[in-house]
Amino acid sequence: MAVRASQFFKRYLSDSIAFFMMAQILLVVATGAIAWTIWNQTRIDGFSAFVLSLGVLLIIQVVLAPFVLSALSKPLKIISQAIAHVSKDPVQTPPPDITPRRYELNGVKAMVQTIYELAVSSQSPAGTAAAANDTPLERYKILLENAPVGIVAFNRQGEIIIANALAPVRETSNGGRELELLFEQTNSFTTWFGDAAATKVRDTKTWHWIPNALPDTEDRRIFDVVGYYNKAGEQSVEAILITIDRTAEYSPTEEGMDFIALAAHELRGPITVIRGYLDLVGDELGAQLTAEQKELIDRLEVSAEQLSGYVNNILNVSRYDRNHLKLHLHEEHLYDIVKELIPGLALRAKTKKRRLTLRVPENLPTIAADPSSLSEVINNLIDNAIKYSKENGEVIVSAQPKDNFVEVTVQDSGIGIPASVVGNLFTKFYRSHRSRQQVGGTGLGLYICKAIVESHGGTIWVRSKEGEGSTFGFTIPIYSTVADKLARDNNGNAQIIERSDGWIKNHAMYRR
């Protein structure tokens, strides 16, 4: 039976006493059992056993005290969170989750609902001395502040002019306000707003699973977002954005990805052992193997390498959120990174009867990069070029400075890509019908490349003509252009993947 707010303290006190007494009884029983076991095994005298049991009791008390206090203070924490949620504190506090049945039974739900009712009545014109100001504008303000969703209004220039307490908005250094949302680069709010302003009178748009911060960030939340555009709207409001906090619903899926990552990580051990034994067999018994046996070993090695690549891809995908990865970037030489990869890739090209040409100058400006992640991008793009090039075709790897970036291109002499396919190339798990028939894979490679490049603050693109080959390219910031931002963030990449207006920079480009 539900407990009313007036009954909360009485119920809370009785529950706390019962919980505490039960914990003490269990503690005494456990301590006695441990002391008896020690006395029985060691046969020490009774007084020593008593002293020992007191010591064990004290240690267990110290260890369990934080957990007991945490459990007993949970209702108070929820109530304080509800009070902070309705307060005028500039730090936004999300509402507590009071849906579990136990909060209805112990009176916590009734207390929280009472707090909300009191907050609404205190802000209502009918419940305050401001009843004389009972105007439509005052009613709208009350409605805005008590809405269960975030509401943000923008003027014609895309500037925030209104935002309620639940809106994911932050103050800028110059006293303005900006959205605190990480949209997908190819589907951002700014792009939609600009397109609507240029071509529409009215328009609506919905985005799902939009976080306000990178993974593993404190107080990270995930929203569904609805945008409404109305040209020349009332009171200079050109667009309205509504944000619905769906963190509770979306978080279990992210936890599921963590489980997948754990499972994939456990697979790496056996795969490494298999590859090691295959190498050992090839080295030790190479001269004794027949041609058929050598071919079988080679096929097993290729399969093991592919399986290892698939597992690594799964691990990488599980670490990304909305195509962004937390990286630590340092000053690196692109030539040194590429040089480490070329011997293995050149051997692969020779095996496939392709020519690999390197045009990466040694004197390029240094870049801000994570060498391991960037190596994966370069390796993936060159490997794809080798796969899809024609026999005796040439794969050309080039690099040159371009504005504040170094641009890397990988040109193949392959089958080319139809225009209808190009726009989907960087989508997770996407593989065209023709590529599935000709080349094996998971469809994760280019998705991961895009995520890594954009997590460096760069862009990735493709230019292709069917039957004439393709050129994939990407940019990485020159170190000197982002050194100050990296220094402020302990070499983290959070600041360089955001524009000054608070939205993620750039879009992936598809050049034809």
Task: Give an overview in words.
- The termini are far apart.
- It is built from 14 helices and 15 strands.
- It has a six-stranded mixed β-sheet.
- With 512 residues, it is of the alpha+beta class.
- Residues 126-132, 429-442 and 499-512 have low confidence and may be disordered.
- It is flat.
- α1 packs antiparallel against α2, α2 packs parallel to α4 (108-123) and α10 (371-388) packs antiparallel against α13 (445-455).
- It folds into three domains: 5-120, no CATH class; 147-245, Beta-Lactamase; 323-511, Histidine kinase-like ATPase, C-terminal domain (Heat Shock Protein 90).
- The chain has helices at residues 8-42, 46-86, 101-105, 108-123, 136-146, 189-199, 247-285, 291-319, 334-351, 371-388, 419-422, 433-438, 445-455, 479-488; strands at 150-154, 160-163, 169-171, 177-179, 202-211, 222-230, 239-245, 330-332, 355-359, 367-369, 394-402, 405-411, 460-464, 470-477, 509-511.
- The longest helix is centred in the first third of the chain and has 41 residues, at 46-86.
